[in-house]
Design goal:
alpha+beta; Lysozyme; 4-stranded antiparallel sheet; 7 helices
């Protein structure tokens, strides 16, 4: 069951599983959530991403983004805490708290998944992950673009929405990729590269949804 899992994952997977059981008991594939934590932070509670335009904190890399003048463009922790009563008490003073971080990841993914009603199965989960990485609005934009492209199925991610992006194609300083490529890489890493080793922990078969 624990083959290939890091020490950090083994310590925190029970907390992630408990958060999913409490807040999203019918989540179709919890291995996606676990792979997402690995992608975001490598299961490091104090993980930080800091660039000139954003600061990301903790297991789920919830961010505070800045405008060119230094003002705050958006504050993900404040927005999540305001939206969900389960997160009241969470702020930047306790930003790295693993209970809040993992609960927030479950709730954010649940919210996005419920909005993606036009896709099913693995495609819906892949779009959920894309929304986690770059926002639900960017997934809607990809869907619109895909619908107007030849041989692009807007109900599919791989071979569908992954080909259609309105995000910048210019390589971004501090990231090494364009924003469009960052999202595509995120989804591929979560859904294809990282996820398989977490399936046994959650009792998921290869064909599970």
């Amino acid at each position: 069951m624990a083959a290939g899992l890091s020490v950090g994952a083994l310590a925190l997977l029970p907390l992630l599983n408990a958060a999913a059981t409490q807040h999203w008991p019918d989540m179709p594939s919890r291995s996606v959530l676990a792979a997402q934590v690995e992608q975001e932070s490598g299961w490091r509670e104090r993980a930080v991403l800091k660039t000139s335009r954003e600061y990301g904190a903790g297991l789920g890399q919830f961010t505070k983004a800045y405008r060119a003048d230094g003002g705050v463009r958006f504050d993900a922790i404040r927005e999540m805490a305001a939206r969900h009563p389960e997160l009241r008490g969470w702020g930047w003073a306790n930003a790295f708290d693993p209970h809040y971080q993992l609960t927030a990841m479950v709730l954010k993914n649940r919210d996005n998944y419920r909005l993606i009603r036009w896709a099913e199965g693995e495609d819906r989960l892949a779009m959920m992950d894309a929304a986690y990485n770059s926002g639900f609005g960017s997934v809607l934009q990809r869907r619109r673009l895909c619908a107007n492209m030849a041989a692009c199925d807007p109900a599919r991610w791989f071979g569908g929405l992954d080909k259609a992006s309105g995000q910048s194609r210019r390589r971004q300083a501090g990231y090494g990729q364009s924003f469009a490529d960052i999202t595509n890489t995120h989804v591929r890493n979560v859904m294809v590269v990282r996820r398989a080793k977490y399936r046994p922990y959650f009792g998921e078969g290869i064909g599970s949804r």
